[in-house]
């Protein structure tokens, strides 16, 4: 059974505890507009008929429409203005070709991966692409590669520290076998 809000008159769905329009707490008590009447079998009200009582809901009076007032102003500006969304496009619209939000082509990703895989030059190229202006997609890709490069360097340092004795023993054995 749906309820109506006692403050604004909106209908509140079944099982809801608060009004979706104004946020007022829904009354958990039964609606006072429901009245108990006695009816006969042909559904006519009986004065003192011994028929079983049935529940009927009286027609609620239409509530006045809620008056929506704008939020108070602060220094001549509205209290809350939704920030403009620079990155939102309609689903059918695509960013222009020269835009910083334009997608990077497949060949562009291939060339970036080849350039970033070069020793030392690749690290410098990754830093430039990650932090210089340009395509947002290119920056995000370069930052992800930079993250994995740094993670790999840290991992190599940790492994070499943990297995230093084993690595030094292996290099001594190799030097002895090769006569170095």
Which key features would you list for this structure?
mainly alpha, two-stranded antiparallel sheet, 36% helix
Task: Give an overview in words.
The protein has helices spanning 106-116, 121-131, 136-162, 164-178; strands spanning 3-4, 11-12, 34-38, 53-57. It is mainly alpha-helical and 180 residues long. It has a domain at 106-178. The strands form two sheets. The chain has a two-stranded antiparallel ribbon with strand order 1-2. A two-stranded antiparallel ribbon has the order 3-4. Strand 1 and strand 2 (11-12) form a beta hairpin. The chain is elongated, with a radius of gyration of 37 Å.
Ordered list of secondary-structure elements with their pairings:
Elements: E1 3-4, E2 11-12, E3 34-38, E4 53-57, H1 106-116, H2 121-131, H3 136-162, H4 164-178
Antiparallel strand pairs: 1-2, 3-4
Based on secondary structure, the structural category is mainly alpha
Please tell me the overall pLDDT: 76
Assembly state? single chain
The largest sheet, given as strand count, sense and whether it forms a barrel, is: 2 strands, antiparallel
Helix fraction, binned, reads 25-40%
Low-confidence stretches: 29-35
Number of helical segments with 4 or more residues: 4
* End-to-end separation: 91 Å
- What's the order of the H and E elements? EEEEHHHH
Strand content: 5-15%
Write a compact overview of the structure shown.
The N and C termini lie far apart (91 Å).
């Amino acid at each position: 059974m749906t309820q109506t809000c006692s403050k604004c008159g909106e209908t509140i769905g079944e099982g809801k505890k608060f009004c979706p329009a104004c946020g007022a707490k829904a009354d958990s008590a039964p609606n006072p507009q429901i009245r108990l009447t006695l009816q006969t079998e042909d559904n006519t009200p009986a004065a003192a008929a011994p028929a079983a009582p049935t529940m009927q809901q009286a027609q609620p009076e239409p509530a006045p429409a809620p008056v929506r007032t704008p939020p108070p102003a602060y220094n001549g500006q509205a209290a809350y203005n939704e920030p403009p969304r620079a990155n939102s496009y309609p689903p059918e619209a695509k960013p222009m070709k020269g835009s910083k939000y334009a997608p990077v082509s497949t060949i562009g990703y291939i060339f970036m991966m080849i350039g970033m895989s070069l020793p030392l030059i690749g690290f410098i190229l990754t830093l430039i692409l990650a932090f210089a202006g340009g395509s947002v997609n290119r920056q995000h890709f370069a930052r992800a590669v930079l993250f994995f490069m740094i993670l790999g360097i840290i991992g190599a340092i940790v492994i070499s520290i943990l297995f230093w004795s084993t690595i030094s023993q292996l290099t001594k054995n190799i030097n002895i076998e090769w006569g170095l």
